[in-house]
Amino acid sequence: MTDTTSDHDGGWIVLFSGGKESAWTLHRSQASGLDVRRLVYVHAADTSAYHTPATPVVRLAARSIGLPLVDAGLPTIDAEPPDVVADPAGADADLRPLEETVRELADALADGLAGIVVGTVTDQHRADRVRSICDRVGCAFRAPLWGAEPRELAEAMLDGGLEIVVVEVTAPGFDERWLGRQLDYEALADLERLGHEYDVSLLGEGGEFETVVTDGPHMSRPIGLEFEREWHGSWGRVRITDAWLEDPADE
Q: Backbone dihedral region of 141: left (phi > 0), alpha (psi from -120 to 50 degrees) or beta?
């Protein structure tokens, strides 16, 4: 699904959630020589909404990465607990704030906007919505993880040095012990078992779980976290009480 057009001048932006796919997409894009100028954070405007536990981590991650973070808040979805079987259109029912942000960046970047990079793997609806923005703005679209085999992609992230923490779970089979758990090879094996029993996606792209990345090759300093667990009987999330950039000398 990567845009093969090569005649786009200017800088690139990466849609960045702080989660594993967006972090790996950013790393791969930079490693391939793509001129990434901005990270664009798309989230609900209401910080009490279910899908915002990563917000303080995203801002610290941007500092560690060394790229400006542009906030493109979307209207809050009134859904708590999260409904992972809802119409996928509801998750991004109104992308006008994102398109407005993209247009502003296209005007602000010194030599214009070359394109947008997204970390989606299988979500055709999301990819189509962002591609439509690219078409209207007149820039390229890239989805370097598109169609990747889930286990191979997860292993590439781990072998590549991402430190991944689970911050929310919403599907059958999970319990509160997953909250704050590091996603490692043991966790992947547990996710595969949940997949066989409950049809849980190994990558969580269906909304079954959410992650934040606290360290990786794209970051100059790791992120430290303190958090509390909130468990609601069938779903839960972490509430981050403190987050900071570690001193590299303390690693």
A: beta
